[in-house]
Design brief:
The protein is an alpha/beta fold. The protein is built from 18 helices and 20 strands. β12 and β13 form a beta hairpin. One magnesium ion (MG) binds next to loops.
Length: 564
């Protein structure tokens, strides 16, 4: 073998220096590396080196990637080397090296060395880019917003670097954003979300962090000083969407807020998320601009909710759920004309009200199983009363809107009633109003079907939420249940106004041929209001709370209350 000349020795030295720089990440220093790369490229007589990075093959096909022209020192006339690698994770890496026309071509040894060079370069490049890709894929959502994992990471870092003293965490949901999307279009919706995000990010400031956790949900952590401003923003932030005509929308949110206490102990991200998540869920059930503060107490409540879910199966099987009956009364005569079956869970000697378990069960279709259980038990009670020769009244059962997903709902209801041999006239189904077009169609089908077979239907909670007169007019309901919030004398209302409203709703129900009953009647004064306004029926604590079945049977036997 011929001895290497000095030129070649120099070349080799530079070459290995460069490889060394590239393969060991500890040595990595971009400037030094570039310097070295340039040196070597010149020794290879190259004029240009281009490396490309694509996250996927599809992106490569569309030319959507990063093209890095690391070295560019002359005309790139001849391509002397081209490499393309596809990694297991789908990433595509490419590199090309060029020379000017008329330059001495690479010899065999040079070509080998250049190949090693390029491969090492790609290796390094992919490592760096991969980190960025992982960042993009893991810590950003598809629209580029930092996401929940980014929030988690921030919490972990904050725990190490500064702790949470003087910090507040928040999870919030924009109100009625689907309406904005519907009315202004999705592009405008996106624009509004983006603007909102930037505005809130400014409030959160450098010492805080804001992420989007999907759709119109956001999580933030920030110093307590910013809390007032954040609350204000939740109550309503005007966002300009049409500069020319100065059109604005108010974007408000409901939020769960956790003012992190001084004795807070960070075990993991859950220590914070477990506080703001249930608080936000609770806030969502309220009207817009609602802020719910998380506390130890709310955490206990959440734990009890989890317990409900865990024990639901057992509770069904062991019959921990019971139908309580609240009488419905004719206000003029005091006679019991019906009853509503309300669910109670008797557990550990405590009577658990539905507010503590229905919201959990409504998060999936467990609620439907409970409703059928209730219907079955109500039917059994009615059958027993009939068999005992008692004077039986019509009993209403609440059905969650979740049932509307079941296309054979009517058949399923009838099956339970038939199995217990209960005449349909003793059953009434209470349903709340619905908001979406799809639900409306299903609701209509159900209400019509029930009417056809002779099962009575009631609009529950009329007057709260999205009451729509169309819904009342177009569906063939039997009963309208006026919510207690519309009853004059509830809360600090404008008495005259609510008297007027109540009067007209009762009159409307009557004109439409609907039976009208008011819920939540608590005082004799309120009974008078009903009488004066021609609302014939009442249900409420004034007469009785929901009663255990034995007590209700006593009432049934008595037949009613003193009309005075
Ligand atoms: P709802 O159907 O509107 O039932 C009426 C609620 O008002 C009952 O609350 C009842 O106890 C309460 N109430 C009755 N009279 C008065 C009164 O004079 N003053 C006040 N302040 N409240 C009164 P409850 O039993 O806690 O039930 C709450 C809600 O839970 C029900 O509202 C219903 O939506 C739901 N629910 C109860 N049982 C079932 C069930 O078996 N299935 C389904 N899907 N929902 C149920
Ligand atoms: Mg009801
Ligand atoms: Mg109601």
């Amino acid at each position: 073998m011929e001895p290497l000349d000095q030129k070649q020795l120099d070349f080799n030295e530079e070459f290995y220096k460069m490889i060394d720089l590239m393969v060991s990440p500890d040595n990595y220093n971009r400037e030094r590396m570039m310097e070295q790369l340039f040196k070597v490229a010149r020794m290879f007589r190259l004029t240009k080196v281009v490396s490309e990075f694509y996250r996927t093959v599809a992106m490569e096909a569309k030319g959507q990637g990063e093209v890095l022209s690391d070295f560019d020192e002359g005309p790139a006339d001849v391509r002397v080397l081209y490499r393309r690698y596809q990694l297991d994770n789908g990433v595509v890496l490419k590199a090309s090296a060029y020379m000017a026309e008329g330059t001495r071509p690479l010899d065999e040894d040079e070509e080998k060395k250049l190949d090693i060079c390029i491969r090492s370069m790609l290796n390094l490049l992919s490592r760096k880019r991969m980190q960025a890709t992982i960042e993009m894929l893991g810590y950003r959502d598809q629209d580029g917003y930092p996401n929940f994992p980014a929030f988690f990471r921030y919490l972990d870092e904050q725990n190490i670097t500064g702790g949470f003293k003087g910090y507040t965490a928040m999870l919030y949901n924009l109100r009625q954003f689907s309406l904005i999307n519907r009315d202004l279009g999705h592009d405008m919706g996106d624009h509004i979300i983006r603007t909102h995000f930037e505005m809130i990010k400014a409030v959160v400031g450098d010492r805080g962090f804001l992420v989007r956790v999907g759709g119109d949900n956001f999580a933030a952590i920030f110093p307590n000083e910013q809390l007032d401003k954040m609350i204000k923003a939740m109550e309503g932030l005007p966002i300009v969407y049409d500069k020319e005509n100065n059109r604005r929308v108010m974007v408000s949110a409901c939020a769960g807020v956790y003012i992190i206490p001084p004795d807070f102990e960070y075990r993991n991200q859950g220590s914070i998320v477990d506080m703001i998540y249930p608080a936000c869920q609770t806030a969502k059930l309220e009207k817009e601009g609602t802020i719910v503060y998380a506390s130890k107490k709310s955490l206990e409540k959440k734990e009890s909710l989890l317990r409900v879910r865990r024990h639901f199966e057992e509770a069904l099987e062991k019959e921990y759920f019971h139908a309580f009956y609240q009488p419905k009364v004719d206000v003029k005569t005091g006679k019991i004309i019906g009853a509503e079956a309300l669910c109670r869970c008797i557990y550990d000697g405590r009577i658990v009200p539905p507010a503590e378990f229905i919201p959990v069960l409504e998060q999936n279709t467990d609620i439907c199983r409970l409703d059928f259980y209730m219907l079955d038990h109500v039917c059994k009670d009615i059958r027993r009363w009939l068999d005992a020769g008692m004077n039986v009244v019509r009993v209403s059962v609440n059905l969650s809107r979740k049932h509307l997903l079941d296309v054979d709902l009517l058949e399923h209801l009838m099956k339970v009633i038939d199995k217990n041999k209960v005449p349909y006239k003793y059953i009434e189904i209470e349903l709340t109003e619905t908001t979406t077009e799809v639900e409306y169609k299903k609701l209509r089908r159900l209400v019509e079907g029930l009417r056809e077979v002779g099962i009575s239907t009631a609009v529950d909670d009329f007057g709260v939420g999205y009451s729509s007169l169309n819904l009342i007019r177009e569906l063939s309901w039997n009963v309208l249940k006026i919510d207690r919030s519309l009853l004059p004398g509830v809360g600090n209302d404008n008495r005259k106004m609510s008297n007027l409203m109540f009067h007209h709703i009762a009159a409307m129900a009557k004109d439409m041929g609907l039976e009208c009953i008011t819920e939540g009647v608590e005082t004799a004064d309120q009974v008078e209001v009903l009488k004066k306004n021609d609302c014939p029926y009442a249900q409420g604590f004034f007469y009785d709370k929901p009663l255990p079945v034995e007590e209700f049977e006593e009432r049934l036997k008595k037949g009613g209350y003193d009309p005075a």
